[in-house]
Amino acid sequence: MKFDVVTVFPDLVEQVTSVGVVGRARERELLDVTVHDLRDFTTDRHRTVDDAPFGGGPGMVLKVEPFVRAAALVKQRRGQPDAVILMSPQGETFTHEAAVRLSRLDHVVLLCGRYQGVDERVREQVATEEISIGDYVLSGGELAAGVVIDAVARQVPGVVGNSESVATDSFVRQILDYPTYTRPARLNGHAVPEVLVSGDHGEIRRWRKREAVRRTLRRRPDLLRRACLDDEERSCLRELQAGETNQESAPHDGRRQ
Ligand code: ADE
Predict the structure, then answer these.
(1) Ligand 1 atom nearest residue 133's Cα
(2) Which of 142, 170, 183, 150 is nearest to 24 (CA)?
(3) Which domains does the chain have, with CATH numbers?
(4) pTM of the model
């Protein structure tokens, strides 16, 4: 899968996509991330990418022409992209479903906004869609582009070594992860839940299901409306909702479960 990213901070995008799972996927050529400096698509001596907004107001607006030229160069060199996405807080909120959808495309262009905004014609004439990674404003779209690339890359076959871990990621089934522990089995007087060191795999599986449901009910009850639960999880949920099993079996993890 190919990404082209257009930004005024190419080093930032290079760095966030050069480490970990995404970095390895690039090395293994499962993923191609080509970063373009928006300033390379300017024509003036000062390589100007922004200007004051028509009508007045604070801040500067990223100009349309450099984005138009960048998109044309990407198309000429790398072919017609399947999607050209403007990263912006005004976009549609990015979700697991969007990551899966984008992972099925071959070629995606990400345009990073900056400053007070982007000339509206970038939306109208260059982008095919607009994505926000959440209801907060970042200083620019670069980190958001890194988030999208990471989440999408995880859905590309072969990128994550253990495909089971992608299949069981929280938002595949809309249920949060159960708590996990590793050595030491006891720390500052707190032991890990007994069941996990019991060797009883049936009990461990049941405990994990129950804790995942409990955690989702407490932290993200909104997810449970859409969650695909099996019979066992549904019965856990009913019990928990009825308040029959309110006792926390996991030790504190530094916050309310
Ligand atoms: N640029 C600034 N804030 C953003 C956000 N929340 N999502 C995507 N791009 C952004």
Answers:
(1) 7
(2) 150
(3) 2-153 (3.40.1280.10), 186-249 (1.10.1270.20)
(4) 0.93
